[in-house]
């Protein structure tokens, strides 16, 4: 459960990455310290910054630059990859098309999902069948994003090995049937700046993205370095700014990890408000369980929380499809 945290911790995960495939990684002092920090951050805030992650800053920046270029194109150009139910909900959505709790969000986005081939998950995956729709402009957009997705998937898997140790399990607790064949989601998002330089008196429906929790295991947020916009809610209901820290990712945990941890770790409410006159971009990568994974509290977590199962079993794919079908206007 989140606490009354006032700041979001920064965790250097490089010792974890150096030993991630060592069967005895949990015995390494450097790994143990990272695991301790992960446990504290997941308990207290559900959010933390990740540094020492090994993904080149030049690539992180290039991904944002390409995103700025795409959203700077005329609407007629962007709409060429329009999202619809027929595209498996992949592609471009215009400003106000994404809905959070009944209110249109003031952002535009490209939604991407791991490819789902026809019949891959039977009836469960029918809605999500399709391939990603990439723009032809900027010309390197597709290859750039696919390289980035590959690196984010790899990093997330390694962080999850640390989270598994933090929960008291083995490093490969989330491999195999749980998340050994992880689904992923990526949202490439643009938030228009407010009119006028003072950024005051923003009406309620000008929220870039309404308060929500993420659906899966772990999120890596790549946000513009110079525009604070992401806010995280603490236990008292205060909104704490996740101010950009150049070279880091903002990382947070999702609904499925909340269930697996039996509530030891909570998926924290967060929202986006761009008070700046500048256009802001953010690329959010969501590392998820296997699409057809049945998620229920881990035995080790039940033991640590009084022996009672606090959450019912959920199938990740059902959870995702339900959210996707209610998120668009």
TrEMBL record:
It catalyses: L-homoarginine + 2-oxoglutarate + O2 = 6-hydroxy-L-homoarginine + succinate + CO2. The keyword Nucleus does not apply. InterPro entries: DIOX_N (IPR026992), IPNS-like_FE2OG_OXY (IPR044861), IPNS-like_sf (IPR027443), Iron_ascorbate_oxido_reductase (IPR050231), Oxoglu/Fe-dep_dioxygenase_dom (IPR005123). Residues 182-289 form the Fe2OG dioxygenase domain. Its main location: cytoplasm. One of its GO terms (molecular function) is 2-oxoglutarate-dependent dioxygenase activity. Keywords: Cytoplasm, Dioxygenase, Iron, Metal-binding, Oxidoreductase. It comes from the Eukaryota. PROSITE patterns: FE2OG_OXY. Gene3D superfamilies: B-lactam Antibiotic, Isopenicillin N Synthase, Chain. It is found in: Cytoplasm, Cytosol. GO terms for cellular component: cytosol. Belongs to the iron/ascorbate-dependent oxidoreductase family. PANTHER family: 2-OXOGLUTARATE (2OG) AND FE(II)-DEPENDENT OXYGENASE SUPERFAMILY PROTEIN-RELATED. This is Fe2OG dioxygenase domain-containing protein. The lineage of its organism: Eukaryota, Viridiplantae, Streptophyta, Embryophyta, Tracheophyta.
């Amino acid at each position: 459960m989140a606490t009354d945290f006032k700041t979001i911790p920064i965790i250097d995960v490089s010792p974890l990455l150096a030993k991630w495939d060592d069967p005895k990684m949990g015995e390494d002092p450097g790994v143990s310290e990272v695991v301790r920090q992960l446990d504290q951050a997941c308990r207290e805030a559900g959010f933390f910054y990740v540094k020492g992650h090994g993904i080149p800053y030049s690539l992180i920046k290039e991904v944002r630059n390409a995103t700025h270029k795409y959203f700077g194109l005329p609407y007629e150009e962007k709409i060429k990859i329009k999202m619809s139910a027929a595209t498996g909900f992949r592609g471009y959505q215009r400003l106000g098309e994404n809905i959070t709790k009944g209110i249109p969000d003031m952002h535009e986005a490209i939604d991407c999902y791991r490819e789902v081939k026809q019949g891959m998950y039977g009836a469960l995956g029918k809605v999500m069948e399709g391939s990603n729709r990439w723009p032809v402009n900027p010309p390197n957009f597709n290859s750039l994003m696919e390289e980035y997705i590959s690196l984010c998937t790899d990093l997330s898997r390694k962080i999850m090995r640390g989270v598994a140790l933090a929960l008291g399990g083995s490093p490969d607790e989330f491999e195999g049937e749980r998340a050994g064949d992880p689904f992923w989601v990526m949202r490439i998002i643009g938030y228009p700046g407010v009119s006028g330089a003072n950024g005051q008196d923003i009406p309620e429906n000008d929220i870039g993205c309404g308060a929500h929790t993420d659906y899966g295991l772990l999120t890596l947020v790549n946000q513009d370095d110079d525009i604070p916009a992401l806010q995280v809610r603490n236990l008292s209901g205060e909104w704490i700014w996740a101010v950009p820290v150049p070279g880091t990712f903002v990382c947070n945990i999702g609904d499925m990890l909340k269930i697996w941890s039996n509530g030891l770790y909570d998926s924290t409410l967060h929202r986006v408000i761009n008070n700046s006159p500048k256009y802001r971009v953010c690329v959010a990568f969501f590392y998820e369980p296997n699409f057809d994974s049945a998620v229920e509290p881990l035995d080790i977590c039940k033991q640590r929380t009084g022996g009672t199962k606090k959450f019912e079993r959920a199938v990740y794919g059902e959870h995702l499809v339900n959210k996707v079908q209610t998120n668009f206007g």
